[in-house]
């Protein structure tokens, strides 16, 4: 059976008349997507070997000529994916990119990294009542973060000493190795294992911070929380987080609000909701009732004939509307939901009065009023239903 030659042009997604630069660009794009350091999927690794082998063939004029004549220059047995080997075995994705984008001669231009690094952000949670969210608070907080070492002032060195150039990497912060591939000699670079990429070492570390330039300490700060904050919101305190290695600038401290549930009010954004329970006589006759709000006791007027489930709105009695800029833009509303309570136990006199009221109102037995405006109480509606 005749063996079909692999379509190396199709593997890279280029035309048969593609130039060397186009082939290189196609491979570079696929290598970024499929390299095991980026995509650990088994199928992606298989495709990476295929595109690498295809580039090895098409970038070599002699091997490409064999392909154009219908042959397969890699069809010589071997293992792996159809005899394809992985010429980049042992190379990281950074090494491949260095081979394409590195400076002339493959020399690295990264150099040593700075010992001084920015610090990380920190997070602390603060529990607030609804009243505290309304007014805002200033509260002392105890935080445990890294601070600047006062003994060495961040240098990490014992008094009277200074860092020295790393002898292993000569101050470059990295060590280089030369490996051969189909591209020729490829220079790869790795962070120096002695100085960890810093290019310098501290022969006599500070006895207080052990060369880190910072120590952990518990301290007290004042956090100012603005009015209108809600559960889950975060207030940023700039520069109050962790000091960075080598005495680097501190990160930020975020204070996350945990709003405690309230016994009376439920919050919905800037609006508040509460339930007001009133006797049926009060709902029928109307009244002016005292209502406890977050601003104190205020009067709420119930109109005569107030129905169960009605919602009364008190404008501007909700929570402050806190904008992203930190400014407060007015307040929300307080929504009062009326719950009309019907008595469940009546003495003889109360029952007599209710029957008298029902008679005066022309209501039938059972005290039920008409619902459709056509007359007839509960029992008459039952009779009309049975005769249909």
From TrEMBL:
Binds 2 Zn(2+) ions per monomer. Residues 365-388 are annotated as: Disordered. SUPFAM superfamilies: Chaperone J-domain (SSF46565), DnaJ/Hsp40 cysteine-rich domain (SSF57938), HSP40/DnaJ peptide-binding domain (SSF49493). Belongs to the DnaJ family. PANTHER family: CHAPERONE PROTEIN DNAJ, DNAJ HOMOLOG 1, MITOCHONDRIAL-RELATED. The J domain is necessary and sufficient to stimulate DnaK ATPase activity. Zinc center 1 plays an important role in the autonomous, DnaK-independent chaperone activity of DnaJ. Zinc center 2 is essential for interaction with DnaK and for DnaJ activity. Homodimer. This is Chaperone protein DnaJ. The gene is dnaJ.
């Amino acid at each position: 059976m005749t063996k079909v030659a692999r379509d190396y042009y199709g593997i890279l997604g280029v035309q048969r008349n593609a130039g060397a630069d186009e082939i290189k660009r196609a491979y570079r794009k696929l290598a970024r997507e499929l390299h095991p350091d980026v995509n650990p999927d088994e199928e992606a690794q298989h495709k990476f070997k295929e595109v690498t082998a295809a580039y090895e063939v098409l970038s070599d004029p002699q091997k490409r000529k064999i392909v154009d004549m219908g042959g397969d220059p890699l069809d010589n047995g071997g293992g792996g994916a159809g005899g394809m080997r992985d010429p980049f075995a042992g190379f990281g994705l950074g090494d491949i990119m260095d081979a394409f984008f590195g400076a002339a001669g493959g020399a690295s231009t990264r150099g040593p990294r700075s010992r001084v690094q920015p610090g990380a952000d920190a997070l602390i949670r603060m529990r607030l009542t609804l009243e505290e969210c309304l007014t805002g608070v200033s509260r002392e907080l105890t935080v445990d973060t890294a601070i600047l070492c006062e003994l060495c002032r961040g240098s990490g060195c014992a008094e009277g000493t200074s860092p020295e150039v790393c002898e292993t990497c000569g101050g470059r912060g990295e060590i280089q190795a030369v490996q051969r591939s189909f591209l020729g000699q490829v220079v790869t670079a790795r962070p120096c294992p002695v100085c960890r990429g810093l290019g310098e070492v501290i022969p006599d570390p500070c006895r207080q911070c052990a060369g880190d330039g910072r120590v952990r300490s518990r301290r007290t700060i004042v956090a100012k929380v603005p009015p209108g904050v809600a559960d889950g919101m975060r207030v940023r305190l700039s520069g109050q987080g962790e000091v960075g290695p080598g005495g680097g600038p501190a990160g930020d401290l975020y204070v996350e609000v945990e709003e405690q549930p309230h016994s009376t009010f439920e919050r919905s954004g800037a609006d508040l909701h509460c339930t007001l329970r009133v006797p049926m006589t009060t709902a029928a006759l109307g009244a002016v009732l005292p209502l406890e709000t977050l601003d104190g006791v205020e009067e709420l007027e119930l109109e005569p004939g107030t129905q169960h489930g009605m919602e009364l709105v008190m404008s501007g009695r909700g929570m402050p509307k806190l904008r992203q800029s930190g400014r407060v833009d007015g307040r929300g509303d307080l929504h009062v939901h009326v719950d009309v309570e019907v008595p469940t136990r009546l003495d003889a006199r109360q029952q007599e009065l209710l029957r008298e009221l029902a008679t005066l109102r022309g209501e039938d037995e059972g005290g039920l009023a008409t619902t459709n405006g056509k007359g007839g109480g509960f029992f008459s509606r039952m009779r009309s239903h049975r005769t249909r």
